[in-house]
Amino acid sequence: MAPRKLIAGNWKMNLLKAEGEALVRALGASLASEPKPACDVLVCPPFTLLGALAPLCGEAGLALGAQDCHAAPSGAFTGNVAAPMLADAGCAYVIVGHSERRSLHGEDNATVKAKAEAALAAGLVAIVCVGETEAERDSGKAEEIVVAQLLQSLPEGASAGSLVVAYEPVWAIGTGRTPTVAQVADMHAALRKALGGAVADAAAVRILYGGSVKPGNAAELLAVANVDGALVGGASLSHGDFWAICQSCG
Ligand code: 13P
């Protein structure tokens, strides 16, 4: 049986406290008053909002996640945040290896793996992001490249309860462009197969698609085999758009 879908909002470096609180309250009101969507709903706000939003997310029935963590549990790392601190703030999830971290902060697969292992050690679910650049897609080797990225980024000892994979083609992030349904199906099948050799319960690991997911394309993308949810950037900042995407799960 396919895993229950997960719709995750990555707020990136957006929203101040009042805006974040209003968004969480609005999502909570929708979850309470409308037919429940067939998915779990997660929001990943900036670090500064985690403490304030944790109780509101609890009331709203939303899971809370962070957008990054350090690989060490504590120490002299000015400006960084450790995984146990995220758990302490009320997070259940943390995104690691987002393409913006890989490209803008020079994070390689070994760094992402170490961060994912720190997340698991802190009892968090690691959302491990992978995806090809446009040049890699054009080379015809996207699947090979993304599978290698995944295998090198996977934490040791992961299971469906501690790992989510997010396939986010770099060229689809924030561009309004998306791969075809066939390209998404092929990539997600390749990732599922690769997980089979690395994780005992690979069929139960959620593999999300991310990159320009909007209300207008969500139903089509979420219906693709092996797409177990979405990682949503820009559209997650709007209650109407994010809720419409959640409802696209059926
Ligand atoms: P957009 O939905 O804005 O394309 O961002 C996707 C993303 O990077 C989510 O992590």
End-to-end gap: 16 Å
The DSSP helix count reads 10
Overall SS class: alpha/beta
How are the strands ordered across the major sheet?
1-2-3-4-5-6-7-8
Mean pLDDT: 97
State the order of secondary-structure elements, H for helix, E for strand: EHEHEHEHHEHHEHEHEH
Oligomer: single chain
**Envelope shape:** globular
Present the secondary structure layout:
Layout: E1 5-10, H1 17-33, E2 39-44, H2 47-60, E3 63-66, H3 83-89, E4 93-96, H4 99-104, H5 109-121, E5 125-130, H6 134-138, H7 142-153, E6 163-167, H8 181-196, E7 206-210, H9 215-222, E8 229-232, H10 239-247
Parallel strand pairs: 1-2, 1-8, 2-3, 3-4, 4-5, 5-6, 6-7, 7-8
Helix pairs in contact: 1-2, 5-7, 7-8, 9-10
The structure holds 1,3-dihydroxyacetonephosphate.
The site of 1,3-dihydroxyacetonephosphate has 14 residues, from β8.
Write a brief structural summary.
With 250 residues, the chain is an alpha/beta fold. Helices cover 43% and strands 16% of the residues. It has helices spanning 17-33, 47-60, 83-89, 99-104, 109-121, 134-138, 142-153, 181-196, 215-222, 239-247, and strands spanning 5-10, 39-44, 63-66, 93-96, 125-130, 163-167, 206-210, 229-232.
Structure in words:
The chain is built from 10 helices and 8 strands. By secondary structure, it is an alpha/beta fold. Helix 3 (83-89) links the parallel strand 3 (63-66) and strand 4. The longest helix is centred in the first third of the chain and has 17 residues, at 17-33. Bound molecules: 1,3-dihydroxyacetonephosphate.
